[in-house]
Predict the 3D structure of the following.
Amino acid sequence: MKKILLLLTYTTLLTFAEIPKEFSYVKEKIPTIELELRYASTNNFVGEVIDGYLAPRAILTTKATLALAKVQKELESFGLGLKIFDGYRPQRAVNHFVRWGRNLANKKMKQEYYPNVQKRNLFKEGYIAKRSGHSRGSTVDLTIIDLKTKEELDMGSSFDFFGKESWVHYADITSQQRANRMLLNQVMTKYGFRAYAQEWWHFTLDNEPYKKRYFDFEVK
């Protein structure tokens, strides 16, 4: 009887540790894609590893991953590729952002990520919310890189910069920066993703499989 209980417990833990079957590790499906999972590091607007990120691994729904593979294939024909900053995001990570946003005294990363925005306004201006499309598994933050040098194309602002400079159609950038944003936007929308007007790096699969379900399994 004890052996049966131990086996059941082990099986339950194993199942809990696995990602849902409708999800994939992006790197396993797209080996040439680059990853820089910011929330699994201290290089982000909070300045610390975010709850729920136990490893720098990109996870998306399999449907979104397969669509992204088509984007990568097209870019590769021009010597370019994708770099992912964030994919699936556990709800506990979103909760971490909310706690950080309410702690007005913590402004450690202000100069780098939100120099022109008052922290007390981050919720009102839509930079932080209690729910994120990332937790549905089909939203991804990314940019384009040169496959040979691994250098990012210049998009006119850094990832996760809070300000109008990050808006897709922000005009006060160079013609090359606008062209780079346009390239990213066009190739992503071509394969079924929709852009978010206030973040040039943010895309959601149009026909995402989970429109109302938010997940909280860990990234590991």
